[in-house]
Write a structure and sequence with these properties.
The complex is a heterodimer of chains A (285) and B (267). By secondary structure, chain A is mainly α. Chain A has one domain. Helices cover 69% and strands 1% of the residues of chain A. Chain B has 2 domains: 146 residues, Rossmann fold, CATH 3.40.50; 71 residues, no CATH class. In chain B, the strands form 2 sheets. In chain B, strands 5-6-7-3-8-9 form a 6-stranded mixed beta sheet, with helices on both faces. Chain B has a 3-stranded antiparallel beta sheet with strand order 2-1-4, covered by helices on one side. In chain B, α4 packs across α5 and α5 crosses α6. β1 of chain A pairs antiparallel with β4 of chain B.
């Protein structure tokens, strides 16, 4: 005899699929996709958490290997670059710790975003699931990694007796922006990389280049009078809008405005792209 | 409220194309350089497309048991995936009223690196079950699949028989109004089929609408009241089971009892 379980409440009581290509219909389908994904937040959370657990299954430290390896990297790079840049550790190390941890999030997220759908092709082809859920899984997974790495920043601040002060709360709007941007990157790069398999390596090399030109390991002030040029680099603006407040600094107006402008452009482009290709992703993976 | 709602499946002029991205056509180079030299239109037209389904229409009401027959590549699995909402149509409409469960893939998107128990929990969360309901699901699945301590080991350590049992138990634990079933679920070995039969039959009986794709004609004959014969993505015939199957086979059917094979009871 089978179980007493009745029908699962999640399953759509009414499913209508039509190829109506009008903008309104596409938008409505994409919005419904997003709403369904929100309804499945417990699944999303569990998937993201299991992704991390799986990576470290059987290891003693578990996800805290992330913390440890970040700490080792920051410690060694901090000593070398503080010497190269003629700065004191007290001045340079908090900056580097924060930069590397934040960039670690951005870089990994963009890399993972490329595999948003190709990594789960099996489940895309066997069950109907909102596509936004796969994006959310990537975002949540990377936020969990970031949370493990924040420990390093706190440790560095405590060791060096640095306290950024109440300006820290100014990072909150920036973090909100990051959250939206993260979804946008997944919904843009996910389908694009499923369709064109050349994109992930291109993205990888762009991110590597961005790491060096976006003031992650060097301080923007080291550019002297040319600091304003950095606002033309979207990676810098988006990094700085969160980093500066956490260092107790106030981001310049140029940084605020450019970060919001770049994010708005990214969000718009990615939503338009996603609602255009959402129905095709299952054929591409 | 759901129980008051009548299940229904409506398919109108459904067409599904599979773009075949040749290793070259798929690359960015083709598109970028195609644009540069102004060959995009030609490229777009030259894109190889497999017409998996063409102008398929039918409607099912509660009580209908539809069998899909046809050779390999006739579009049976694509039709099931379209009904499940996995492939969105390029033309035509698909409407499903009522809860739906699709038994398409033995693994149902199982993650083989996770333990059996974790896979069951994920399945339960996907179905939107509450914590106690998930515990019920766990008990039910582990009782049927007889995995014992293996339930807490990664699925990749399972023998093939164990993972089939787990996949089958999970897929059949939740009873839908509309049940879509691919032939895989009838393809187990004899011992497994013996065990699976009553569970599957009660699930099929509990569903308002069944759509079954199978090569095994006696299964279709025993379980289906109506048969849709697909041929190269088109509906070749649609009607009462015996009639269509005789046309498909080209000779009269033997009485159900005379058939050897799976020994599935008529419903």
């Amino acid at each position: 005899m089978t179980t007493s379980l009745a029908t699962g409440p999640r399953q759509a009581n009414f499913l209508e699929l039509s190829p109506d290509p009008s903008f309104g219909a596409r938008e409505q389908r994409a919005r419904r996709d997003a709403v369904e994904a929100i309804g499945l937040w417990r699944l999303c959370w569990t998937l993201a958490w299991l992704d991390i657990r799986l990576r470290y299954r059987g290891s003693m430290l578990g996800p805290f290997w992330l913390t440890l390896s970040t700490a080792v990297m920051i410690g060694s790079m901090g000593v070398v670059y503080a010497f190269l840049f003629h700065m004191s550790l007290r001045e340079y190390l908090p900056f580097l710790a924060l930069s590397l941890v934040l960039w670690g999030y951005l870089g990994t997220l963009v890399g993972d975003a490329c595999a948003t759908f190709t990594a789960v092709e099996g489940s895309i082809r066997s069950v109907r699931m909102p596509f936004v859920l796969h994006a959310a899984r990537v975002v949540v997974r990377n936020i969990l990694v970031l949370a493990h790495n924040i420990v390093v920043i706190v440790a560095v601040y405590a060791l060096l007796h640095v306290w950024p002060g109440l300006r820290m709360v100014l990072a909150l709007p920036g973090l909100g922006l990051w959250l939206l941007d993260s979804f946008a990157v997944c919904l843009l790069l996910g389908p694009l990389c499923a369709r064109f398999r050349d994109i992930p390596p291109i993205v990888g090399s762009i991110m590597q280049m961005a790491f060096f030109v976006s003031g992650v390991i060097w301080k923007p002030s080291q550019l002297g009078g040319h600091e304003w040029l950095l606002a033309f680099n979207p990676f810098f603006s988006i990094l700085e809008v969160v980093r500066a407040p956490l260092l107790g600094e106030f981001p310049s107006h140029l940084v605020w405005i450019s970060a919001f402008a770049y994010s708005l452009a990214l969000l718009g482009a990615s939503w338009l792209f996603f609602l255009r290709v959402r129905g095709r992703v299952a054929f591409w993976v | 409220m759901r129980s008051l709602q009548d299940a229904a499946v409506e398919v109108e002029h459904l067409s599904v194309d599979f773009p075949l991205y040749h290793s070259n056509a798929r690359s960015l180079k083709r598109v970028v350089f195609g644009t540069v030299t102004g060959r995009v239109a030609a490229d777009a037209r030259q894109r190889v497309v497999v017409q998996a389904l063409r102008d398929v229409s039918f409607a099912l009401r509660p009580g209908d048991r539809l069998g899909l027959i046809g050779g390999n590549g006739a579009g049976k699995t694509t039709l099931l995936r379209s009904l499940a909402g996995i492939y969105e149509p390029q033309a035509g409409n698909v409407r499903i009223h009522g809860s739906l469960n699709a038994l398409l893939d033995p693994n149902q998107g199982m993650n083989i690196d996770l333990t059996g128990r974790e896979n069951i929990v994920l399945r339960g969360l996907y179905e939107g079950l509450s914590r106690p309901e998930i515990r019920c699901l766990e008990e039910d699945v582990s009782a049927f699949a007889e995995l014992g301590e293996f339930l807490d080991l990664p699925v990749r350590m399972y023998s093939s028989g164990m993972s089939v049992r787990l996949g089958f138990a999970m897929a059949t634990a939740i009873r839908p109004q509309v049940l879509l079933m691919d032939e895989w679920f009838l393809a187990g070995d004899a011992v497994f089929m013996e065990k699976a039969r009553s569970r599957l039959e009660s699930m099929v009986r509990g569903a308002d609408i069944l759509v079954l794709s199978s090569h095994v004609l006696e299964v279709v004959q025993n379980w289906c009241t109506r048969v849709l014969w697909l041929d190269q993505g088109r509906v070749r015939a649609d009607g009462p089971a015996a009639e269509v199957m005789e046309a498909y086979l080209g000779h009269p059917l033997l009485p159900a009892g005379a058939l050897p094979g799976k020994g599935l009871e008529p419903l």
